[in-house]
Amino acid sequence: MSGLLHDKNILVMGAANQRSIAWSIAEAVHREGGHVALTYQAERLKGRVSRLAEELGGAPMIECDVADDDAVRRAVDRLAEIMPVLHGIVHSIAWAPAEDLQGSFVETTRTGFAQANDISSYSLIAVAREARRLMTAGGAVVTMTYAGSWRVIPNYNVMGPAKASLESSVRYLAADLGPAGVRVNAVSAGPIATVAARTIKDFSGMLDLLESHTPLRRNVTADEVADAAVFLLSDLSRAITGEVVHVDAGAHAVT
Ligand code: NAD
Q: Annotated catalytic, 156?
C-alpha cells in the first residue's frame, strides 16, 4: 500500500500521545504521501505533540480547543496560511467527565451530558462549518465513533448518546456537504487502550471479553483503524458518504 493520499493536505485533530488513534492515523496519512497538520487541545499538550510532529518531518501544529467556536475559527485561519486547500479532516476527539463514565446511567448529570455532547459531537459540526471554506477541491471528513451509540455497553454511559448524536450528524453533514464534493463518514472502532478509553471504568475487562467473542477472536489495533481512515480519506471510497464503517474484528455482527 503506498501513495493513496499523495500530495493531499489532511488536518488530523486529537493526537495527544503515541497511543492516540489520531496519531496512528497521522502516521498512516504520512506513509501514504499526505501532508499532515496536527491540532492539539491545549498548551499542556504542546511539548508531547511537537515530538510527534517531528516524527512526521516537522508537521505543522495548531492549538484548537473545540469547545470554543472562536478557537476553531482561529485554528482554521491559521491552517489556511499553511494549507490553503484542504483535502481531508480527521476528527478524533471525545471527552466526558470521569464520574459520568461509571455507575448508573440514570445518574448522568445535566452538565456532564451537555459537555460530552458539546466536545464529542457538536465539535464535528463546528469544525466542518469552518474548514469547508478550505475544501475547495472536495474532500473527506472522518470521525471516530463506538458501538456504544446503538447498544448498551457497561460504563460507556453518557458517551453512548453523544456517539449516537455524532453518527446522526455524520449523515446530516454528508447531505449538506455532498454537493460540494465533501464526503463525511465515521469509523466505529473496537476498544483500544488509549487515555480516553481508560477513563471508562473496567475498560480492560471489556478488552478481555471481546478477545474471546469477536468473530476474529481478537481485539483491533490503532493501526488497523488508521488504515480504514486512510481508505475513507482516499479516492478509493469516492462513492461512500454518510456511512459508519465498523473496524471491530466483527464484534458488531455478533453482539
Ligand atoms: P485519546 O485520549 O488519545 O484522544 C482523545 C483526544 O480528544 C485527545 O487528543 C484530547 O486532547 C482530545 N480532546 C478532548 N477534549 C478536547 C477539546 N475540548 N478540544 C480539543 N481536543 C480535545 O483517545 P482515543 O481513544 O484516541 O480517542 C479518539 C477518538 O476515538 C474519540 O472520539 C473516541 O471516542 C474514539 N474511539 C475510541 C475507542 C477506544 O477504544 N480507544 C473506540 C472507539 C472510538
A: yes
